[in-house]
Each structure stands twice: as structure tokens, then as C-alpha cells.
Amino acid sequence: MPDTPSLTQSHGDGFRLLVVDDDIDIRDLLADYLRKHGFTVESAADGAEMRRKLTQNSFDLLVLDIMMPGEDGLSLCRELRAKSRDANEPDTPVIFLTALGEATDRVVGLELGADDYVVKPFEPRELLARIRAVLRRSGGSSSARGEPQCRAYRFNGWTLDLTARHLRDPEGMVVNLSGAEFRLLQLLLEHPRQVLSRELLQEQGQGREAERSPFDRSLDVQICRLRARLRDKGREGGLIKTVRGDGYVFAADVVPEGVTASSGAEWAGA
């Protein structure tokens, strides 16, 4: 059965994907499989070809292998994120392909702003599900849920703009967030002063199901990155506080802008 009406198995809804992997068999397999599910797919064997493709077209998502000779996927993701930051543009979602057991690579990838990862060897349908989930969250989340309740959230001088999908600091400067960071912050702002469990943040914020190991620290990595963006030390008076054994809480009042008449004017975790 299809996951959503906008991302059915027969229609990729016009999404353009770029698969970057030095293994031609994997490139061809994934390109053929994803095209059969309605996506427009291009492929690249290395960083140089990836750059050429990116100058020729815009892409909705990149599937990027970590272990490649020469420039690896981590360095390429770092380059992509730096270019987005310098151009003040939203990040293109990235899903890493990583070798089994390379936990360090997965953590570093998430620290660099990757949106998800798939461990080799994998079933193509697992990657398809991850792609759909990331695209839903990064570009189709509002339409999937209907019209958003508000256009932005304000807190402590900061503004998270849900339409432009960026964060502005108290001085009005844009602070670039990865897709995963944006989703986590939005989820926290939707429930201020409420403790959100690790499971909820992982499943709704990261799109990862309960298959995770209890020793997985990817959520903590992304929370740490988000705190750094917000200049938040996580201590007394911090915005995002750790509730040991339970999860995290956004410890400030949040004012939604552009709310409907039935919505409250200010949320304080009532």
C-alpha cells in the first residue's frame, strides 16, 4: 500500500533525486528501482560528477554513500552544508548509505546535518521508505497534515518561520538549520514546557522507528547541535533542558504567529 497520496508507489510527485555512489551496480540498481516508483533520478560516481550534476539541476534529495575513494560522503556533505550556509539557502536533504557497524560515521554524518541513514546491506524498499519520510518532513509535511495552525513561532527574541523554513536570531540574522534540526525544534515549540520522550522525538522528529538500539545517541547529537544554534548551554535558564530518564523539554514560553481564531495567542505548556 502507498504511504501517502502524494508519494504513491507509482508516482514520485516530480521529486528529483541524486544518487552518489562509486559502485556502479548500486547506482544502477537504485536508479532503476526509484524510477519505477515515479522519481526522477540521476546518479554520480564521485564528488566531481556530483558537483556537475548540482550545477545543471536542483535536487529534492541526495542519497550519498559514505565510503568512497578520494572524497568521501562525509566531506561532500560538509561541503554541501557550507555552501547552503554561505548562500543563505535551505539545506537539501541527505540520506547516507553507511557500512554495517560504522557507528562513528553515522554520528558524524548526523552532526554534519544529514537527515537519515540506511545501513548496508539494505533492501531498496527500506531506502524508498526513508526517502518518502524525509521528503514528507522536509517539503510535504504541511500539506500532509493540512494547512498549518500558524506561520511562525516566537520565543525569547527568536523566530522559527514555518513558511520560509528558517530560524532568525534576536538580531534578525538567519541561522541555518538542517532538516532534522528544523523538525526537532518545531516539535519542541509545538509542545512548550512539556516533557517529550526520546521515543516521540525519534519517531516524529527524526522519522526513525523504534528499531533503534537503546545505546543510539543520534538524537542527543542533534539536540546538542540545536542547542549550539540557539546558543543554549542546556543548564539552568537554558531553552532545551534534559529530563533524565524521560526526554527533553523546551523551557520557555512560545508565541505562535498567524494562528487561526480557534488557537490560543500564547502557549506556555498548558
What global shape is seen? Answer: globular
Strand arrangement within the widest β-sheet reads 2-1-3-4-5
The rounded Rg comes to: 19 Å
Order of helices and strands: EHEHEHEHEHHEEEEHEHHEEE
What name does CATH use for the topology of the largest domain? Answer: Rossmann fold
Helix/sheet category: alpha/beta
Enumerate the spans where pLDDT stays under 50 for 5 or more consecutive residues: 1-11, 140-148, 260-270
Number of domains: 2
SSE map:
Blueprint: E1 16-20, H1 24-36, E2 40-44, H2 47-56, E3 61-65, H3 73-87, E4 94-99, H4 103-111, E5 116-120, H5 124-138, H6 141-145, E6 152-155, E7 158-161, E8 166-168, E9 174-175, H7 179-190, E10 195-197, H8 198-206, H9 218-229, E11 240-243, E12 247-250, E13 255-257
Parallel strand pairs: 1-2, 1-3, 3-4, 4-5
Antiparallel strand pairs: 6-7, 6-13, 7-8, 8-9, 10-12, 11-12
Helix pairs in contact: 4-9, 7-8, 7-9
What does this structure look like?
The termini are far apart. The radius of gyration is 19 Å and the shape is globular. It folds into 2 domains: 16-142, Response regulator (Rossmann fold); 147-257, Arc Repressor Mutant, subunit A. Helix 4 (103-111) packs parallel to helix 9 (218-229), helix 7 (179-190) packs across helix 8 (198-206) and helix 7 packs across helix 9 (218-229). The protein is built from 9 helices and 13 strands. The longest helix has 15 residues, at 73-87. It has 270 residues and is an alpha/beta fold. The model is unreliable at 1-11, 140-148 and 260-270 (pLDDT under 50). Strand 8 (166-168) and strand 9 (174-175) form a beta hairpin. The strands form 3 sheets. Strands 2-1-3-4-5 form a 5-stranded parallel beta sheet, sandwiched between helices. Strands 9-8-7-6-13 form a 5-stranded antiparallel beta sheet, covered by helices on one side.
